[in-house]
Specification:
By secondary structure, this protein is an all-beta fold. About 0% of the residues lie in helices and about 50% in strands. The protein has strands at about 5, 10, 20-25, 35-40, 45-50, 55-60, 65-70, 75-80, 90-100, 105, 110-115. Strands 2, 4, 5, 6, 9, 10 and 11 form a seven-stranded mixed β-sheet that branches. The N and C termini lie far apart (about 40 Å).
Length: about 120
């Protein structure tokens, strides 16, 4: 059974940084496009960043220039480096793996930006 396990969330002050990790298991990681989504209380889940199987990246306008998505296929892990964090970045962040046939979700990790 495929597993995606996020880590790295926590409480950070505005302007701070965090790095989220998502470790994948029981899948051929390198062939999957990987995404980070987030969901704030009372809001819909939104796409934050994408990295395709060939390494192409894309970002939501709200995080461009502040967040960086990357992947390490040797470690079956995707990362989200978050900098200059704002209170509005507070949400549960989810890892998502997808290809033409399947998609999988992690359980989420809480990020809270507050002073």
């Amino acid at each position: 059974q495929v597993q995606l396990v996020e880590s790295g969330g926590g409480l950070v002050q505005p302007g701070g940084s965090l790095r989220l990790s998502c470790a994948a298991s029981r899948m051929i990681f390198r062939i999957y496009n990987m995404d980070w989504y987030r969901q704030a209380p009372g809001q819909q889940r939104e796409l934050v960043a994408v990295i395709t199987s060939d390494g192409t990246t894309n970002y939501a306008d709200s995080v461009k220039g502040r967040f960086t998505i990357s992947r390490d296929n040797a470690k079956n892990t995707v990362y989200l480096q978050m900098s200059s964090l704002k209170p509005e970045d507070t949400a549960v962040y989810y890892c998502h793996a997808r290809n033409s046939a399947y998609d999988y979700w992690g359980q989420g990790t809480q990020v809270t930006v507050s002073s």
